[in-house]
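ok trying again, last paste got cut off:
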Amino acid sequence: MIKTHVKEMIQHITQAEKFAQNPSFYLYDGEAIAGQIEKLQRVMPKNVDLYYAMKANPHPAVLNFLTNLPYVKGVEIASTGELETALSSYRPKHIIFTGPGKTLAQLQESIDAGIKQIHIESYLEAVRIETLATESPVDVLMRVNAARSLEGANNQATGGPSKFGVDEEVMFEVAGKIQQLNNINLQGLHFFSGSGVLDSQHLLAHFKYVFELSRRFEAEFGSIDIIDLGGGFGIDYSGNGKELDIEHLGRGLNALVERYGFSDKKLILELGRYLVGDSGFYVCEIVDIKVSQSKKHIITSGGMNHQHRPRSKGINHQTFVLPRNLPRLYIEQLSVHNEVVDICGPLCTKDDVLAKKIQIESAEVGDLVVIAQSGAYGKSAAPCNFLSHPQPPEYFIG
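nice, full thing came through this time. structure:
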């Protein structure tokens, strides 16, 4: 369901004159973001630090909103473009840099900015930092490509050959070489194994594996201060009530912390989708309704150039049609009444689909299609320049 204050804001935006010139936009709801963070704060262990994975949604209004929520300790970036955006809202000591393939220039910019940590993905990356850190040692975590896959993840990052991190099989060897470098302070380990997990048992099994590896690491090298557990918390795109049981997850993680005696360590969670995914809505206008070989299509003002995920993942997000009650242009103009249709955008490719074989109760030309769960990997992950359609503006309800 779409909350009343969101509907009212959508109505307000569509009544503005500029909407007619560019009838597509994104809307983000701060109340929904705050609600997700409050749930985490209530159940997570006290030694967990939450960082926002800003790749999910780097909009400045979202970042500024998060700075007012003390439970969010900072942001996780994966490029110096994100670094520049993050610095507009956060101090350098609240920024951690992850991701493979960091260039010499990116590392230099991050070191010069004085960010909190760089999470290294290879020994070569550690050597690069060693050559650049001439003023003082740089705090780093070593990312590990665990030998175990994260069950239930719709996007696996570990458990096999991977560009991410140092393979578990050689992690001790590489860590030993890193510790011999003079300008690097190895504070701990970083694990990120996948995304989109909806079963808390799968995440708890991952955390247990991480703690076992961390314990083995400490037996070899002594105590570490930080364990980055990654993220991977999923959201329910289907609307069928298959939500992550955050209460069970919190209880289980608390039990693991106590069992392994890790209450003195800082545990990091990097979450993006779980924090902002449900907060966002992509809104576009129905431009045409047509029948092709007995199949009805709704044609909208924007498509996969604005919201790419439904097509790329082959799923329908929760999709709604909001009426605008505009006059018909001619008497026989087509409409939709309790029918299964495809919702397609204006691009010159058959791949341009926002929803496929979806049941729509009612739709008229001029109504609004609203794609929910669009707060993460929406505009930031879309090919907005394809065919040079107007960029969808973004709005925030604080």
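cool. The first helix runs from residue 4 to 14. The CA atoms of residues 187 and 225 lie 6 Å apart.
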